[in-house]
């Protein structure tokens, strides 16, 4: 990944260019809050917005895109199919519902949100059809481990172009990252800042002082230098602008290793092999 500035992209295996820094909108309220956040981001130079059916704010995302001066073709939009809609026919319905809410003619990236063990391969086959029909520019996975990816590769069809995972200094999963690189599958980070839980980390504090940056900027730069697309979430204008101020410094190899060493396999979300039980305990279907 050649890191240049906020307009920079990585090229997916099918040739589609994906901005390597974007705005995540998980838990952003679907009305004014998400519209304002996206406008702040687009005005600051962001060109990548990541939402999902489960976030219940696709309509707000669509409104923000419609009401900005930035041309649609310059904005990379991602949404996702939730695990309870991954039967073959249900995936088509889910896609149509999302597109109606977003108000878009085409989607840049569609992801399987969590791979339902019984149905995610059905969802993939439906997504392949949507991709081949030109309704989606790229398709991929979210929260998928190597065996999930291998299940899709074994189908012998379209190779996933992206795998979006929980990724931060406490959860690197280097083996999975290496596997995706080997298969030319772009790795992408959700919760890159671990929901603020890393902001008191002494190693990161020292690095922030060394580079005259804040901890969020250190982590985001680490993501990019690891070759990982990243979508930090914020609804605050100042934070959105600050999160993109990562192109005037470079972490040394030693400092990259210091951040890598913080890996302790600690998750903020579910394990991809046990997410059904995780969500069931929370009453989420």
TrEMBL record:
The active site is at 55 (proton donor). Keywords: NADP, Oxidoreductase. PROSITE patterns: ALDOKETO_REDUCTASE_1, ALDOKETO_REDUCTASE_3. One of its GO terms (molecular function) is oxidoreductase activity, acting on the CH-OH group of donors, NAD or NADP as acceptor. InterPro entries: AKR, Aldo/ket_reductase_CS, NAD(P)_OxRdtase_dom_sf, NADP_OxRdtase_dom. The record marks 80 as: Lowers pKa of active site Tyr. Substrate binds at residue 113. Gene3D superfamilies: NADP-dependent oxidoreductase domain. Residues 22-263 form the NADP-dependent oxidoreductase domain. Signal peptide: none annotated. Pfam families: Aldo_ket_red. Belongs to the aldo/keto reductase family. This is Aldo/keto reductase. It comes from Apibacter adventoris. The lineage of its organism: Bacteria, Pseudomonadati, Bacteroidota, Flavobacteriia, Flavobacteriales.
